[in-house]
Amino acid sequence: MERVVLDGESLTIEQVIAVAYGQPGAPEVVLSEWAQANVIRAADAVRRLLAEGQIVYGITTGFGAFKNKIIPPDQVEQLQYNILVSHAVGVGDPFDVPTTRAIMLIRANTLARGYSGIRLGTLQLVLDMLNKGVHPMIPEKGSLGASGDLAPLAHMALPLIGEGEAYYGGELLGGAEAMRRAGLEPITLAAKEGLALTNGTAVMCAVGVLETHRAENINAVADIAGCMSLEALHGTTLAFDERIHNLRPFPRQIECAAHLRRLLDGSQFTRGYDPSNVQDAYTLRCIPQVHGAVRDAIAYARWMFAIELNAVTDNPLIFIGDDDAIDVVSGGNFHGEPLAIAMDYLGLAMSELGNISERRIMRLIDESSNTYTLPAFLTEQGGLNSGFMIMQYTAAALATESKVLSHPASVDTIPTSANVEDHVSMGVTAALKARRIHTNVERILAIELMAAAQGIDFRRKRMGESALGRGTQPVYDLIRQHVPFIEQDRVLYKYMQRVLELVQSAQIMQASEGG
Q1: How many domains does the structure of the chain reveal?
Q2: Is 3 strand, coil or helix?
Q3: pLDDT in tens, 60-119
Q4: pTM summary value
Q5: Which domain holds residue 161?
Q6: For residue 323, is it within any domain?
Q7: Could you list the active site residues?
């Protein structure tokens, strides 16, 4: 992908991922000719409104509760400057570079539709910053999700006017200095531009897109980890029979069961029909039902964000008729409720992946729960060695934190702006919670993969099986390139980190697909 052409209507999740994570060598982002024409037309409409002396919210009035305060024509530029400097009050850790790049891209795409009134040169400057690697310092916290992501987007826009801070060449600089080093000139904002830059859902959308993409990888790893645990525990694949799942035809449950069958194809570590042991515990038997339900939440989030990427989310919006008549309409597309609910749903679902994974870890280390297939705590000299005992503690702690984080943010609201903005979405809060849950689940799955590989080695010692499944064998081999069989207690956290990196880099998923 060498170039991403923005027209406000066709930006894809895959393009956002390429631009966000492509540094260095990210695709160049440019505006289509159609978008340029629309942007110019809307900016001309704003100038006409000013020349005619019309009263228009955010152009010749204040913002929020100050909507009835009329701004004289000679102060409209000061008004736009003021909205940036007064709204840039975010706190907390700054967003990482990929998230910042996604925010800039999504905001630019929204403005490219030509309903916001921003000038072409101002929008082009945002793209120049993105293409040249000037990344504004944007604190994570401060957005209520209505009217959009005001505080973080104000931080994003500050370097355009030579204010704020930005990263350039790996160094945090003053906004003006970062622009100078990149060969860019700050500008003076015109009417409507400060409002257009700050009013919208670009932050929650950016985090949501990146986390939805991340969730797809995590879900694939969870399937693999579940299959390796099943092999270590001498489980059966009978519960994954296609006939069972066709009788409860949730599409993604069916897809998950089919994926598990492919991963385990050819495995000598699973059992067939055994009249003395006809079915497994739920954490093994019900993987398609649980993981499939999580797939549904991910699919819903992907559907939601695919729409939001190409939505116009600022206010007011400028409509120009065929006769060049201008209609400025105030609405509420900046409200992040659809995204907030999607992220709460995604976080809750992903938390369940952590819950069921932690329970499989427990089965792997609890000798009585695994019908004595594996030694207690996956160590032969229990007592002298603790083995994997405390790794399960860590998994339990992470699962518990994720449960706490699963409380929805979207059901909370605190009225602001003197009760003009009397219901807010908390969309960024929901997205950041999902991000923390995802990190927890990745770490739990890394522990499960280590424990399953340890269990598989004990099975080989005790039972003599050799071949794992088509999809699990290459993952086992990959893990063993980084983590040895643990014969005696040793420092384990470094191995946990190595497997976590394999999970997060998608190497686990890629290894299974190559099998």
Answers
A1: 2
A2: strand
A3: 887 666 777 888 888 888 989 999 999 999 999 999 999 999 999 999 999 999 999 999
A4: 0.96
A5: 3-200
A6: no
A7: 57
